[in-house]
Amino acid sequence: MTAGVAATGQRAATQRYLYGPVTDFLCLGGLSLLVLPLLFALPVQEFRPGIALLGMVIAYVVNHPHFAISYQIFYEDFGHKAFGRDTNATLRLRYIFAGIVMPVALVLFMTGCVLAGSAQTLGHAAMLMVDAALKRQFFTGDEKKILRVNAYAVWSLTWLTTNAIMSKSMLWGIQSYMLPVPSWVLLIASCVVVATTVSMSAMLAKKWRTDGGRLPWNGVVAYLVTLYVWMIMARFGPLALLLVPALHSLQYLLVATRYQTNRFRDVPDAREAPENPLLARIFRRRYLARFAGTMTISFLLGYVGFWALPKFLLSVVPYDTAEFGPALFLFLFWIFINVHHYFLDNVMWRSENPDVRKHLFS
């Protein structure tokens, strides 16, 4: 997860944490080390109703809000970020592309597929969702080049393996298609991963020795878990498919909530009591009330974007259900949000973004 790993590496270097050593460790990757053994022991077939319920709870409580909070962070004061003269020109172009060009292009592509009656072409969009989700797994910015090379190698192998195993899959009634991957390509990718993993391990070992037995452990755990443990967990059936996105969302929410809290604390009246008497009794500080409002909006936006609005459109917009199945708008919204989320992240959490430096790394 790009944001979580990058932020942890920066803060741990000065013995600073997002929320604390234990919370950071668990949310940024340590929880995966506790969950993985359960996947070996739990008889999944006997717990299918419970797994379905778990999936709904995780979606509502963790996954959907993590997407919604990214939209709030990205589009707040968007006009200044994209067109303000005091913003770096390259960063402005990134905001314009991710915030305007990319969503318009996605909408046009999806609309064209529906109007053309091509469910197969639309099904290829699911491959973009897998690609975007996996790309959240590597370091960016000023991290060590050797870590980036290894991360790209592991991501590439994961992506290729996913395509090789899941040549076809079904999402909301629409068949999605992956790319056929020859065995020799997988072999080469595996060799590259082994080589870069050895190089990365040697680099960490050397750094540990030269720094007197110290490493930014939470950042290292987040890096290793995200790249290696999650790749293993993804092979353990439906429970893992629920847990891996939830664990990623925990990483994201840890960083995003810290960013928002710090941003609200920077407002001049942050320490004053809320004007509303009820809010003043509950929160006592305006920055806490504002943060609670952000999280409430995140839960509502998550529900509206993933469920309420798609279901409403299903009830009022006619389309060819024989071609696209009974849940077309659920498919469209889920694909759009997942793919667009990646492009938002790629702009928001860059180390050269002044908002990140001010509200997260300071």
Measured between the Cα atoms of the first and last residue, the distance is: 20 Å
Task: Tell me the strand order in the biggest sheet.
Answer: 1-2
Q: How many helical elements? A: 16
Mean pLDDT across the residues is 76
Please provide the count of β strands: 2
Shape annotation: globular
Low-confidence stretches: 1-15, 127-143
- Based on secondary structure, the structural category is mainly alpha
How many domains? The number is 1
Strand content: under 5%
Secondary structure: helix percent: over 70%
Largest sheet: 2 strands, antiparallel
The SSE string, one letter per element, is HHHHHHHHEEHHHHHHHH
- Rg for CA atoms: 21 Å
Keywords summarizing the entry:
single chain, 362 residues, mainly alpha, two-stranded antiparallel sheet, 16 helices, globular, disordered N terminus
Describe it.
This protein is an all-alpha fold and 362 residues long. It has 16 helices and two strands. The chain has helices at 2-12, 21-41, 48-75, 78-83, 89-116, 119-123, 125-134, 145-165, 183-210, 217-233, 237-265, 277-283, 286-316, 321-324, 328-348, 354-359, and strands spanning 168-171, 174-177. The longest helix is centred in the C-terminal third of the chain and has 31 residues, at 286-316.
